[in-house]
Amino acid sequence: MRTKLSNRNFLLTCQKIFIPFGHFASLCHQINLKTVVKGDDTKQYHMGYFRDDPQEPPCFVARNCAAIDCTITPMAENIFGAVNAYLDAMKGKCDPFQKMKVSKVQNSLKSWAKDNNFVLDVLSEAMKARNKKVVTKTFHNAGLVVPWNKKTELGYRKLIETDANTEECGGEQL
């Protein structure tokens, strides 16, 4: 059963979907980004694991400043690479004394990652492979990857929310 939502009901549905996930709830977020590192409250900066399919492992770690826009920027394949990228950016903005401290932390991170076989690349081979599978650009700029049927030229993935849950939030019958 399909439903048609008015603008008000769409917002209510989005609030029901987004707010329980405990990160900066914004209508420009998708459930696909699960926050794991929270930054400042002013910009609502956060990093999170991005998933194309909620049932699959994360594709990459991305960042967003929810108070500014809804752009999801891929940072690295894993949280260690994302923190390394963040430290790189931080070194360009801090004074020389802080830069020494940041470099020390970053060197420790790089050493640990090497010893434990973690990739710190900003654009890993897995991320490059995912970029080739993107079927369309999205408003958050991370792109959309869904199973694609070349014969019918259709891509589809079920939504997490059921029609019943959508109707419960005030959806109207088509």
Automatic annotation (TrEMBL):
<protein>
    <submittedName>
        <fullName>Uncharacterized protein</fullName>
    </submittedName>
</protein>
<dbReference type="Pfam" id="PF10228">
    <property type="entry name" value="HPF1"/>
</dbReference>
<dbReference type="InterPro" id="IPR019361">
    <property type="entry name" value="HPF1"/>
</dbReference>
<dbReference type="GO" id="GO:0006974">
    <property type="term" value="P:DNA damage response"/>
</dbReference>
<dbReference type="GO" id="GO:0072572">
    <property type="term" value="F:poly-ADP-D-ribose binding"/>
</dbReference>
<dbReference type="GO" id="GO:0005694">
    <property type="term" value="C:chromosome"/>
</dbReference>
<comment type="similarity">
    <text>Belongs to the HPF1 family.</text>
</comment>
<dbReference type="GO" id="GO:0005634">
    <property type="term" value="C:nucleus"/>
</dbReference>
<keyword id="KW-0539">Nucleus</keyword>
<keyword id="KW-0158">Chromosome</keyword>
<dbReference type="GO" id="GO:0042393">
    <property type="term" value="F:histone binding"/>
</dbReference>
